[in-house]
Amino acid sequence: MELFRYKKPIDFMGASRKFGIVSLILVLLSWGLIFTKGFNYGIDFAGGTLIQLKYEGEAPLKKIREAMAKSEAFKDATVTYFGSKNEVVIRTKTSSKSVGKDVGDEVRQMLKDTGKFVVRRVDMVGPKIGNELKEKGLMAMVLAILGILIYVSVRFEWRFALASVLALVHDVSIAMGAIILFNVEVNLDILAALLTLLGYSLNDTIIVFDRIREGLQKIKDPDLAGIINESITRTLSRTVLTSLTTFFVVLSLFLFGGEIIYGFSFTMLVGIIVGTYSSIFIASPLLMWLGFDVKAFRAKQAEKLKREKEKEKMRAMYEQGTI
Amino acid sequence: MKRLNYRVVIFIAALIFGVVFSIPSLIQSKEGKKITLGLDLQGGLHMLLGVKSDEAIKSRLKSIAGTIKYIMEDNDIVIDDLAVEGDKVTFKVLDSDDIPKAKELLKKELEGVSVLENQGTFTVTLTPKEVARTKKQAIDQAVDTIRNRLDQFGLAEPTVAKQGTDKILVEVPGIKTPADEQRIRELIARAAHLQMMAVDEDRAARVYSMSPAEAKKYGDVILPDVKNPKEKYLLKAIPILDGSMLTDAKVGFDRNNQPVINFKLNGEGAKIFGDFSGKSVGKRMAIVLDNKVYSAPVIRERIGGGSGQISGNFTIDEANDIAIALRSGALLAPVYVMEKRSVGPSMGADSIRQSMIALILGFVLVVIFMVIYYGMAGLVADIALVGNLFLILAVMALFGATLTLPGMAGIVLTVGMAVDANVIINERIRELLHEGASIPKAIEEGYANAFTAIWDANVTTLISAVVLYAYGTGPIKGFALTMSIGILASMLTAILGTHGIYQAFMDKITRDKLNFWFGIKA
Fold it and tell me: What is the distance between the alpha carbons of residues B354 and B357, in angstroms, rounded to a whole number?
């Protein structure tokens, strides 16, 4: 079976301005959301306690809330269904520092008249840890991006590095925007998803860039737009296929992985769509907008080649003992 | 099979390696190295504890004060106003003739302190180096103590590890009931700070009207009874001795068949205990555990031999837990919870089931899709994919890595991404075949052309995975680990392995069978 058989280059660059504007708007909207509404930090980052209960039969939300309201520590707690009507999660900002006492025990006591249930999960994160995790997470992102910048600069050229990192910022920004828009709770697994996304979307971009790098050497015509069009078209089937297979798996995670992995798979789902889009329509035009010059690149490559050849010659001469 | 080249050999070796070493994990056998399931998958208790190392300094100073009192009395130097205040111990030597001798004794008996003397008033402080050492020791000791306690509690494979410079990570898998969890937490939290303290008989009658501040003025403290908080005792603030001189603690039974804790002291403790009891016949001595008075018997005679008993209406479990705590030593510094996660066993099982369903479903979808799209080339990629999965499991098992829920997601994602290398290669081969290249040339050049792209793409992904591993905590680390292993494994299986397979079957691939082999009509 063949979905995309290469015939002639598709003119992606012709429409790049339009896509650029769409992307710019999406990124700005996402940033708007980040700076106005902000993330809905879960307990991993904000600190607090999360208690997950499973009732025999439907969980009596009203009764639970009434019981919670009586307690000083839990009166601001939120109670919501989790996945099914049998399960609830209770979230509160309270956390306890004492090792001996436990919020889970208190809740068990408090709710013992509301029906038969088991406590499935109690997570408590102190505020200090939350901040530490946030800092570490941010640090990890910055370092990962830095590492990528350096590697791509060495292997390609600095504009390739900058373009791929800008495409990354684009993807992660939009994924973050979607997280806020759909009010997904930001916990450690979301951070993991965002960082995976970093790797995934970069993967996609690098494959296209690799083709462009190859095109720069093979295609005679120094027209960058032409080379980019040719490269994207030739990698199109691969980009779509890999995105599809990854999409399948993440979709099955999203649909069947259960509530606990929902945030992760949602973020990945958005990320795969945005990442695929950006590696086709955004990353390569960025190269052009950054003023990548084919002739200069070729001259430099030729220079490099020449120097290498000279070195080789020198070495050969040394080895023969004549200078 | 003359075409059995090194690629096929390596690939088959990798496959065998993968299958052999993932079997123990897959059938959950007792023997062999296998992947440990994270607490989120098997249920258990995860705690990140902070250590109040300042408290260790305080108790160090208190114990120094106790030593000073003992050595001065032992050498007939009369001292007064012995007190621990903030970060120093102060006292007065009453007879100025004794000052040089006192100085000498302090120098000889105490380490890591600096001593200042001014007209008979001594000030003893810890040196900065000693403060740092004490704090570090408090954390190290807390790690050891907690590990000892959990080991003695008899649970399956608890993990106790120092995290950073001032945190302790405790993980206890396989806790079945909330009551067990409660017991474990109490066992960890118990300071188990045993002290023998003299009752201030001169003022004891006034204890119920006395304020803590007034008690302090007399060099005393007011401590409550363990069972009845209304009952209070007025005790000399400087203890006679403390639990650091304890060598053993065991559960026993008293005459009424009530559980008690019998303890033994080391030589130094026994000597101090004997001297004190000999001097204090008729007076009361309180046995204080974690600042609560367990009993305050009247001393009837000199107690030699250095053994004693704590009674206090315990249940067997309580007595047992206290004995464990005493045996494994006091926590020099109290710990507090910074992060706690507990997952019930049923929850973990559900998580495994759900992610397994997702994993299998996603996997099957990808496998079928690849065959439909690429024909035999798809099947070859699928073989690489299966090999990849086994390799991930095997490497994880060998490293004793922990599989967490995000880790599972990582595997699922690797499945999606692992076919990528083969997709790139297949597309290149198809491209060359369309351009009319011969089949061997299309395959060889296809691999060559695809290589730089796969290499650069994987290395960049690996960079972010490694950063993730270095900076991530717990679940993120697990995720980064499976991803990294997955990437490396896919380079091996997808580039080397499939290449070898094509080379082995090169004779069979002919132009008229291109649709069968690569899913294209040339």
Answer: 5
